[in-house]
């Protein structure tokens, strides 16, 4: 993979977000996704993150903690959602970042973004 790539830049369509949020919720329930800046940083340091979803409106402090690490580890990032949308997908009020640690789930999210983009 080249430098960290943004899988989806800009706002996601409603259909894309519906699929991605359902997959993220499934990932959290199956414990194949981690929620929150500190847990995502830890998983990235271990090298277990396959894909990260980063809220566009997350605080600068949160983004400064996690985005440089994701880029350094060349982890693909999905943008285009709010912290409230991302939190709702994983059963929280808001969250800045969710990382997928299961490659099959990450492939499913990439596929949902690609198939809905057309």
CATH superfamily assignment? Answer: Ribosomal protein L30/S12
Number of domains: 1
At CATH level 3, the topology is 60s Ribosomal Protein L30, Chain: A
Identify the strand order in the major beta sheet. Answer: 1-4-3-5-2
Count of discrete alpha- or pi-helical segments spanning 4 or more residues: 5
Q: Multimeric state of these chains?
A: single chain
Can you tell me about this structure?
With 118 residues, the chain is α/β, with parallel strands linked by helices. It has one domain (6-117): 60s Ribosomal Protein L30, Chain: A, CATH 3.30.1330.30. The protein is built from 5 helices and 5 strands, in the order βαβαβαβαβα. A 5-stranded mixed β-sheet has the order 1-4-3-5-2, sandwiched between helices. α1 runs antiparallel to α5 (103-117). The mean pLDDT is 90.
